[in-house]
Amino acid sequence: MLRFFADRRIRIAAAIVAFLLAALPLLLAAFPYGVLKGVIEDRLSERFGRPITIGRMERVDRFGFSPVIALGDVRVPGPAWTGKTDLARVATMRIGFGALSLLKGDLALHDVTITGARLHLIRTADGRENWRGSERRGGAGGGNLAALVVRDSRLVYEDAKQRRSFDLALVSDAARGLRLAGSGMVRGTPVRLAVRTPAISDRRVIPWPFDARLAGEGLSMHATGTMASPLDTDDMTLDVTAEAADLKLIDAIIEAGLFRTQPVVLSAYVRRKPGQWLIDRLDGRIGRSDLSGRLTVDKTGERAKIDGTFTSRQLDFADFSSDEGLARGAAKERAIGPRVVPETKLNLAKIGSTDGRIAFRIARIVSRDGPSSLTAMRGTLTLDRRRLTISPLTIAMRKGRITGDVLVDQRDGAPEPRVRLDLRLVDSSIAALGGGGGSVTGRVDGRALLTGRGSTLREVVGRSDGRIGLVARDGALPAEIAAALGFDAGRALLASHDDRAALRCVVVGFAMRGGTGRSRTFVVDTSQSRLDGSGTITFPSEALAIRLTGAPKQNAILRLPGSATMTGTISEPDIVVPREVKSAGNIFKAIGRAITGRQGPVAADADCGPLAARVLR
Fold it and tell me: DSSP characters for 576-600?
């Protein structure tokens, strides 16, 4: 008996389950989805983080597994800081979907019709975006959407951070495809934007082609390509061309953190994969400088990784500044005078979660200001959590080369990075450093080992500790100059312009402290004379304050007593001889000493080898 009742309960339970299983499809086919309006509003509000409202929602078909839902007066408000500006308003929507897909927990849309949509996207100067708060699901594209129809809709975009704005009409249907067109402004430059793709319909086009054009007087960009599926921006390939009055205008579109330049023309072949941008080919010209290479940007991890190789057949560093920037630099140089140390920017504060490696090679360096002493450059940049190294670095000159390493470290979050320079000048010449020609010859080597903080190279050297050394040797100079270095006025006046003296060595070494270098070694040694100096060189002004004393290596014809002072700057030195040295009394004293033979001790040869080794170590 008990078994009978147990079997009966099992049969009843099985019948109930069977009934429910049979009734569930019927329930899905006939379900009045309009009753879910409140639930959907709550779910959307939770997702966007703001109260989403739907004016009306009803099922417009009666029965079936492909229901069609009509929605009216859908409103998505913006965050509180946008005031009364809504993120989106839609007058009417019709959505068709597969009811059975609800059983899988994945809504499969068949077709969507949107009429009277108004989208208003806003980004402020400090980076706030009114569309944030939604769950970002990547570029999944159109999914299984069979048809998208959009009528009488507009997209308004305002971006104070990049100083760009657009007002665009949006339409989509089987006859015209998907179209986005209108006007805008990019950093004060009027532009027109047009995007064309096939319609999203049952006649699927895979891969899905697109064409986007941005045109203005100072900025033009054109991108053509294909997506793996409609609207799938995570999987696409594209060919891009761009022409702009300034690279910063292009950066206002691609947001790569670029800078102002001379006019630019670029082309690239780009592949987009989930979390990756692969620029397989990049060619272009900035001013009269050319550039080619490849670049990979991987954003699949917590930190973006970049890897690239770039080459240039010809490069002028002035092309990487705008006309305004060059004018400011020229005005500053006129105000403070020319400087040897450039004002190259080094600050890494704006580089956030990006690491990587870029190898570069410049075959020829040119300058709009005339012949450049630098002729070529190559190196590798490695960035690791705001620690940038350029190693190895080689800069070729018309004669000789500069080699070494540069370290820019801003990992401590300080407003200015700590910079270490370890550079060697090898096998150059006085003529090469001086821009060519000249009456003084000799091989030149140098060493700079400096550490300091600053946002530019000039600031770093102006606050640096370390040492600087320079050696010239095995050269020649006019005999009159050699005599003058020994304060031998007689031989300086009587020497022929064709007479030459040997330049045994010039050895200069400064110990740097807080941007001021104090001379440890300062010797100019010739076959006729020796000059010794002591004093300071101060950066960033590059001001000289050096006392010079000289002596001939043989009895002078007319030896002037006293000393001279070297002032001015490295670029424009000024030798000042005190009036008393040139006074009539001193001249008569010199004549008297020449007659009596009591002119003072003559100079000995400097020990050039050990002196040079010490300052170049």
Answer: E--HHHHSHHHHHHHHHHHHHT---
- The per-residue pLDDT for 105 is 60
Calculate the CA dihedral of residues 473, 477, 481, 482 and round it to 10 degrees: 50
Tokens (6 digits) for 482: 């050699």
Report the C-alpha dihedral over residues 403, 408, 409, 414, rounded to 10 degrees: 150
Angstrom CA distances, 279 to 238, 272, 308, 362, 396, stand at 10, 9, 9, 20, 29
Position 534, amino acid = S
For the record, the structure tokens of 179 come out as: 């179209």
Q: Looking at residue 85, what DSSP letter applies?
A: -
Q: How far apart are CA 493 and CA 498, in angstroms?
A: 13
Average pLDDT over residues 469-490: 82
- How far is Cα 258 from Cα 252, in angstroms, rounded to an integer? 9
130, 133, 137, 140 alpha-carbon torsion, rounded to 10°: -30
In whole angstroms, give the CA distance from residue 406 to residue 420. 6
pLDDT tens digits along 405-446: 999 999 988 999 999 999 999 999 887 776 555 688 899 999
In angstroms, the CA 92 to CA 308 distance is: 48
Distance between CA atoms of 538 and 456, rounded to whole angstroms?
Answer: 17
- State residue 139's pLDDT score: 44
C-alpha dihedral over 535, 540, 543, 544, to 10 degrees?
30
Q: 181 by DSSP, 3-state: which?
A: strand
On whether the CB atoms of residues 432 and 373 are closer than 8 A, the answer is: yes
Cross-strand partners of 296: 278, 307
Q: Mark 215-252 as b/e (b = at least 16 C-beta within 10 Å).
A: ebebbbbbbebbbbbbbbebbbbbebebbbbbbbbbbb
Instruction: List the end-to-end C-alpha distance of the chain, in Å, as a whole number.
Output: 107
Structure tokens at 419: 């910079």
Task: Output the DSSP codes for 92-119.
Answer: EEEEEEEGGGGGGT--EEEEEEEEEEEE
Whether the Cβ atoms of residue 545 and residue 538 lie closer than 8 Å to each other? yes
Cβ partners under 8 Å of residue 604, min gap 6: 530, 553
Judged against a pLDDT cut of 80, whether residue 463 lies above it is answered with yes
Dist CA 283 CA 286 (whole Å):
10
Q: Which helix (H) or strand (E) holds 18?
A: helix 2-30
For the record, the structure tokens of 457 come out as 């190279």
Closest among 422, 350, 402 to 127, alpha carbons compared: 350
For residue 13, the number of C-alpha atoms closer than 13 Å in the C-beta half-sphere is 6
The Cα 90–Cα 115 span in angstroms is 7
Q: Higher pLDDT residue, 138 or 424?
A: 424
Phi, psi of 413 (to 5 degrees): 75, 10
Assess contact for 423 and 402: CB atoms under 8 A: yes
What is the rounded CA–CA span in Å between residue 473 and residue 496? 23
pTM: 0.77
CB under 8 A, 24+ apart: contacts of 276-284: 276/300, 279/308, 282/310
